[in-house]
Specification:
The chain is α+β, with helices and mostly antiparallel strands and 144 residues long. 12% of the residues lie in helices and 22% in strands.
């Protein structure tokens, strides 16, 4: 990748986990690489300054956890909340949200609900099916 600007995308600023800005080894980063943090509610572009050496102050300044040297990710465009994405978004790794996922302004997934008990005989099968349908409606997977 020598001489080429790297483009990265992830789901968190710090924490060292999969999808975090600080997860990328500083040894592979080059001046002016780009990183875009995208979550259901945040859009934040960062650019790598290879000789910054500034102290970490997330989300404005982020240091790689491994081999940082003087390399720092610098927030270049502010953090935009309330993001609406158009088109396809491919994600490798987890997405964690404290709100619901919506499609065309209709909730399709929310917090995990209570378990549905197993049916134990033909008489409880109908009750368990109705419980399962109620859970699907609560989550927005099917209409009410």
């Amino acid at each position: 990748m020598a001489g080429e600007i790297g483009d990265y995308c992830g789901i968190d600023f710090i924490g060292g986990g999969l999808g975090a800005v600080d997860k990328i080894d500083g040894a592979v980063l080059q001046d002016k690489d780009h990183f875009l943090v995208v979550t259901p509610t945040v859009f934040a572009p960062l650019s790598l300054d290879a000789d910054s050496g500034l102290g970490e102050n997330s989300p404005q300044i982020i240091s790689p956890n491994v081999n940082p040297g003087d390399k720092r990710w610098i927030l270049t465009g502010g953090v935009f909340a309330g993001l609406t994405c158009y088109g396809n978004v491919d994600v490798t790794g987890d997405i964690n949200t404290t709100v619901n996922y919506k499609v065309d302004d209709t909730q399709v997934v929310s917090n995990q609900g209570a378990a549905v008990a197993n049916a134990t005989d033909p008489a409880t099968t109908m009750a368990r099916l109705n419980d399962l349908l109620a859970r699907c409606r609560t989550h927005g997977l099917i209409a009410t």
